[in-house]
Each structure stands twice: as C-alpha cells, then as structure tokens.
Amino acid sequence: xxxxxxxxxxxxxxxxxxxxxxxxxxxxxxxxxxxxxxxxxxxxxxxxxxxxxxxxxxxxxxxxxxxxxxxxxxxxxxxxxxxxxxxxxxxxxxxxxxxxxxxxxxxxxxxxxxxxxxxxxxxxxxxxxxxxxxxxxxxxxxxxxxxxxxxxxxxxxxxxxxxxxxxxxxxxxxxxxxxxxxxxxxxxxxxxxxxxxxxxxxxxxxxxx
Length: 209
Ligand SMILES: *[C@@H]1O[C@H](CO)[C@@H](O)[C@H](O)[C@H]1NC(C)=O
Ligand SMILES: *[C@@H]1O[C@H](CO)[C@@H](O)[C@H](O)[C@H]1NC(C)=O
Ligand SMILES: *[C@@H]1O[C@H](CO)[C@@H](O)[C@H](O)[C@H]1NC(C)=O
Prior knowledge:
- 82% of the residues lie in helices and 0% in strands.
- It has 209 residues and is an all-alpha fold.
- It folds into two domains: 1-34, no CATH class; 36-207, Up-down Bundle (Butyryl-CoA Dehydrogenase, subunit A, domain 3).
- α2 (36-52) runs antiparallel to α3 (57-64), α5 runs antiparallel to α6 (110-137) and α6 packs antiparallel against α7 (145-171).
- It is flat and about 90 Å long.
- It binds 2-acetamido-2-deoxy-beta-D-glucopyranose (NAG) (3 copies).
C-alpha cells in the first residue's frame, strides 16, 4: 500500500513553503529598500562625472570604478586613489623597462642604448616623484591645504614631464617594431594615468580657493 501523505503533513508542507516564500520575499524587499544600491550608483556616478573632465575619461573610469566603494564621493580620496593607481602602473612599467634595457645590453647601437638608459632613469624618477606626491597627500590638512596641494601638483607635473620625455625619446629608437610599440604604449598609459591624476589635483586645489 502506497503511503499517501496525511492531510496534516500536507498542510505542514504548505506551511513550510509559505514561510520559505515569506523569507525570500522579505529578504528581496530588504535588499531593494536598503540604501546600498543607491549609494553604489551615486559613488559610480561621482567617478563618471569627475572623470569626464580629465583628458582620458574612459581610462580614468576603467581604472577607478572598482574603487568606487572606497572613494564614495570624496574628491580627496578620488585624487589619492588616482595617484596610487598611477604609481602602481609606473612601478610596473619602470621595472619592465629596466629588465628590457638589461636584456638588450650590447645589442643596441650606442645612441639607442643611451636613449634607453635615459628612459629607464626618467621612469624611475617619475616613480620617486609620484611617491613623494602620495606622501604629501597623506599630510593634507585643512591648515596646510594650499601649500600641500601646490607641492603635490609640482611633483606630479615633474612625473608627467619625465614620462613624456621617455615616451618621446623612445619614438625614434630603431628596435623591433613590436617590442617598441608594446613598450611605448605602456609608457603612454602611465603618462595618461598621470595626466588624469593631475587633472584631479588641479580640481581639488581650485575647489578650495
Ligand atoms: C544619491 O543621489 C541622489 C541625487 O543625486 C540623492 O538625492 C541621494 O540622497 C543620494 N543617495 C545616497 C544614498 O547618497
Ligand atoms: C561629460 O561632459 C560632456 C561635455 O563635456 C557633457 O555633455 C556630458 O553630459 C558629461 N557627462 C557626464 C556623465 O557628466
Ligand atoms: C595610497 O597609498 C598609500 C600608501 O600605500 C596609503 O597610505 C593611502 O591610504 C592610499 N590612499 C588612498 C586614497 O588609497
């Protein structure tokens, strides 16, 4: 004889299902009614709007949107994060150039070897300058705002000059086209990130005037 569920166990299954449904629905309601999605949307919108006034808005948004939760809508955190992202990229590129320079040692004409050495040095200088600007940013207070922003601006401008000199110097080098383009595009990327960070620094500096 087949064991049919008794009416009472069937209704307890119904009760279970009902409770389960209520739990699911209430958790959906509590998710949608919480502030979080609006907050996230606002944070992302803040980055989008801020990036809009930089020279490379798409790169800007791509490099910063994953930090939206941390940046929220703070221009200071936006600027600091842009500098940190730029430093990470500059460090990686500087290391890559240094490795490349060593691996090509003895295989370049003296003038090209010299150009590459210059470039390695300029990138390394730009890493130092970015580090100094980040150090200055961490000292930013209401009381030293103008002076500090001025220093930050000076360091980051110097970094951008060094990166541009390096990428220009690389243009004329007569090495393997693929290597040259790959390397040059990495340096250009660092310079573009730096340019974007500089735009935020200028905005932040003038917001306080
Ligand atoms: C999101 O932005 C809107 C309009 O810009 C504002 O009214 C709202 O309070 C913001 N929400 C949060 C959670 O910051
Ligand atoms: C970005 O700037 C352009 C003009 O420069 C403007 O038309 C557009 O609405 C802006 N977009 C955002 C998301 O702020
Ligand atoms: C940037 O990096 C420095 C050093 O790691 C850190 O102290 C600082 O909090 C970072 N700033 C932001 C805005 O992430």
